[in-house]
Amino acid sequence: MTHGRRRTAVRLDNLSLRDQLRVDRLPLRLLQMMVGLTGFGFSLALLLESGLGGAPWDVLHAALADSLGLTVGTLSISVSFVLLLAWIPLRERIGIGTVANSLWVGVSIDLGMLVLPAAGGIPAAVAMMLGGVVLNGVSGAVYLGAQLGAGPRDGLMTGLGRVLDRPVGPVRIALEVLVLATGTLLGGPLGLGTVLYALGLGPIIQLTLPYVTLPVRGRGGGAPAVSTQQVPDLG
Question: Nearest CA to 142 among 43, 57, 217?
Fold first, then answer.
């Protein structure tokens, strides 16, 4: 016998920008989106400041930032908009969350690195690493649950999967391996945190998402006729 409400299956609706502007509970969705993106960027800063390795994309961002004399957040924003150019031939839908993700995650990374001290020892480093991974997964789920559009890296993953007619999982792995290898060769911060992030992010998002997803409701409680999307991992 099953007790209580089961929270296993999650539907994420692939809304167009026009539908997003007319979706129910838009102010709440915008607030949830910004909370999720802020936590997401702050968690990436936690990982970097732990000294035990950054998230796969941030290994590349940090390497480029060091080479160019810029901040990690600035590189995150720059790479995001370069990736959005790749959305054009892939015909991916740009949403409110796509633009917000491209800008605010990078800002949040830099704010986090500004206020967070570097780890003062192994216990502090491990705590920051673990906290960063957990906060990242929860924040990613909160952002996705607002249903206002995928981030630039997620859209590239799902778009390539659709065009190449390949499952999203292998496409994501191939992209992140390529990004991680490039960042590592350029001297980016590869470490234990990178491995833990890669292994732990997906399960944390999957566990959290059912509790933070705002279902799309049309008038009278019915859902509008929109397509659904697979749940991507943020990275």
Answer: 43
What b/e string do you get for 89-122 counting C-beta neighbours within 10 Å, with b at 16 or more? eeebbbbbbbbbbbbbbbbbbbbbbeebeebeee
Residues 6+ apart with CB under 8 A from 18: none
The model carries a pTM of 0.86
**Residue 222 burial class via C-beta count within 10 angstroms: exposed 0-12, middle 13-18, buried 19 and up:** exposed
Tokens 């920051």 belong to residue: 128
Residue 228 β-bridge partners: 13
pLDDT band at 9 (very low <50, low <70, confident <90, very high): low
pLDDT at 5: 44
Residue for token digits 């292998």? 170
Confidence of residue 134 (pLDDT cuts 50, 70, 90): very high
Mean of the per-residue pLDDT values of the chain? 87
